[in-house]
Design a protein that fits this description.
mainly alpha; 16 helices
Length: 463
């Protein structure tokens, strides 16, 4: 066994640590939602108060993402990744040990900070370890944590709530996290891209509160609807910060967020389509879970079971996307997958009480199409990004992914608040809105180049 471990290649080590970290981070985003009623009951707080658990996590995560690229380039990706991953694991233990809502919320803030730095740095390590021509083979690695984990969250969350305790939703991170930390400390190779890179204080002072306020506003609208004063006040303030940020970042020599990377067509289109993909995916994941439980009368465990095929569909897609890439090319593959995703989102409206098998089939289809699209989009987005610019590109990529996810949930919640949940009409409209996101992605996919100029790399302009 020791001999086998000594022979672990650095590329394999990166894949192992990436999957472990991103799987925990992705699953944690959805596993808690199912547990919120049980948490509120144990701590004797109203359901509205438990929203702080998610708000603290999302705001902290959004505030810390912008600095991740600079930290990885300045201090080394291995050191920064292990530090952020360690903070995430420690925070998971603190969440499970919390004795009141305040302690749990503070632990979730720490968890969000670790996840906000961990995710972009993990993606940076992965894409620096593999050249573009080999990245399509990574689809099995890329898809498992980023797409399967959110789909598995409600299943595990429902199981823990009904058969164990909500605390296991956090404790489940500990064994995997500790093993991955030890593995990464031993086998990951250090890479310091720019040891003298200057910290963009103004950029961080605008990006962190700007993204945090936008995420807070989206979470507020998902809880109280578009009439919430918090939504308008925080949303406008956040957008104002981001508007000033864009102006300053295009003028700074070493910006916190290198927005000039969007001048690369492959990165810009891949990122934008993924934004629509995750918005629709998370919107339906949130909306369907509520519809199946509240609208159709299923239990949390039953809801988790019918959403499990979504994860199976994602895994099937990961096995076929390499073949489909070679056979059809990225443009047709992504366009067809986004169209299939839109159709599967809309078909969720055909599900009625007792239609468990239909629900499972539709979830399987949605997982398959979203999985195929998201795996291919990550490859397309980074096809022409140079290794030296990967840190900055990963930061921007994750910013868009997180905002897209929050936007999908917020819009679904706003539709439900505006139309009401007395019948199924609000849920059905929300599913159609999510399908609209996927249709927009399909239209944008028509502009993707089937043969990206692999020889032309986009290097950060001000390095």
């Amino acid at each position: 066994m020791a001999a086998v471990l000594r022979g672990v290649r650095p590329q394999v080590a990166v894949c192992v640590c990436y999957v472990a970290a991103m799987f925990m981070n992705g699953m944690d985003a959805t596993i808690v939602n199912v547990a919120l009623p049980a948490i509120g009951a144990e701590f004797a707080v109203p359901p509205s108060a438990t929203s702080a658990i998610n708000v603290g996590y999302l705001v902290s995560l959004a505030a810390c993402i912008p600095v991740s690229g600079w930290l990885g380039d300045r201090f080394g990706t291995k050191r920064v990744f292990l530090g952020a991953f360690g903070a995430f694991v420690v925070a998971s233990a603190l969440c499970g040990l919390a004795t009141d809502l305040t302690q749990l919320t503070l632990a979730r803030v720490l968890q969000g900070a670790g996840g906000g730095v961990m995710s972009p740095v993990a993606l940076t390590m992965l894409f620096r370890a593999y050249p573009p021509r080999e990245r399509i083979r990574l689809s099995r690695v890329l898809l498992l944590p980023t797409a399967v984990a959110p789909a598995l969250g409600p299943v595990l969350g429902g199981f823990f709530v009904e058969h164990l305790t909500w605390r296991w939703g956090f404790y489940v991170n500990l064994p995997v996290g500790l093993l991955a930390l030890l593995f990464g400390a031993w086998f990951l190779a250090e890479h310091v891209e720019a040891p003298g890179k200057r910290f963009d204080g103004l950029g961080f002072a605008l990006a962190a509160p700007g993204l945090a306020l936008v995420m807070f506003a989206l979470e507020a609208v998902s809880q109280t609807g578009p009439a919430s004063p918090y939504f308008w006040a925080c949303g406008l303030a956040g957008i104002g910060c981001l508007a000033v940020l864009v102006r300053t970042q295009l003028r700074v020599e070493q910006p916190m967020l290198d927005l000039k990377l969007f001048s690369d067509a492959s990165f810009r289109r891949g990122s934008l389509i993924l934004f629509t993909c995750v918005a629709g995916f998370l919107g339906t994941l949130y909306g369907f879970t509520l519809m199946y439980q509240s609208g159709l009368g299923a239990s949390a465990w039953e809801t988790g079971l019918v959403t499990l095929p979504k994860a199976i569909g994602l895994m099937i897609a990961s096995q076929l996307v390499g073949w489909a890439h070679r056979r059809f090319g990225p443009r047709r593959l992504i366009a067809a997958s986004m169209l299939g995703a839109a159709a599967s989102f809309a078909l969720m409206n055909a599900i009625g009480p007792g239609d468990a098998w239909l629900a499972a089939a539709v979830q399987l289809a949605s997982g398959f199409f979203v999985g195929a699209a998201s795996a291919e989009l990550q490859v397309v987005a980074f096809a022409t990004i140079d290794k030296s610019a990967t840190g900055g590109a990963s930061t921007l990529f994750n910013v868009q992914r997180q905002i897209g996810s929050a936007l999908g949930v917020a819009i679904t919640a706003s539709v439900l608040a505006a139309v009401g949940t007395d019948g199924l009409g609000g849920y059905h409209l929300a599913m159609l809105v999510s399908a609209g996101f996927a249709l927009v992605g399909a239209i944008l996919a028509a502009r993707i180049e089937d043969s990206a100029p692999q020889g032309r790399k986009l290097v950060a302009a001000r390095r």
